[in-house]
Amino acid sequence: MESSYFFFLILPLAILVFFLVALVIYNARKEEDDYEKELKKLRQLLFSGKLDRKTFVNMRNRLKHEKVFTSESKKLFSLLSDDKLDKETYVRLRQALEKSFRDS
């Protein structure tokens, strides 16, 4: 293999692969959802001593409930937008979902 093949073919491809991998890793770290961001903040408050353990556990559980509620709401809305549910059924299921999360 000649050295010109290396400089004109292999090296640019290696640089391109490196750039694409770096881009994927950057986007993966950037896409933290709100739950993970809030949980990080709560952990920092706990470790700094500004938040006691009981309050941390209560707030973490509340964040979990909010995350589940949000995901279920998105699923219901996607069913409505895909015309798998009619508007009336969507409203009833949404109210039942809100009531179940309000009670817990």
Secondary structure class reads: mainly alpha
Q: What kind of oligomer do you see? A: single chain
Low-confidence stretches: none
- Percent range for helical residues? over 70%
Main pleated-sheet profile: none
Distance between the termini: 69 Å
For the secondary structure, the number of strands is 0
Q: Number of folding domains?
A: 2
Strand % is: under 5%
Radius of gyration: 24 Å
Order of helices and strands: HHHH
Q: Name the average pLDDT.
A: 88
Q: Provide a count of the helices.
A: 4
Dominant shape: flat
Structure, explained:
The chain has 104 residues and is mainly α. It has two domains: 1-31; 35-103, no CATH class. The chain has helices at 3-30, 34-48, 53-81, 87-103. Helix 2 packs antiparallel against helix 3 and helix 3 packs antiparallel against helix 4. The longest helix has 29 residues, at 53-81. The radius of gyration is 24 Å and the shape is flat. The mean pLDDT is 88.
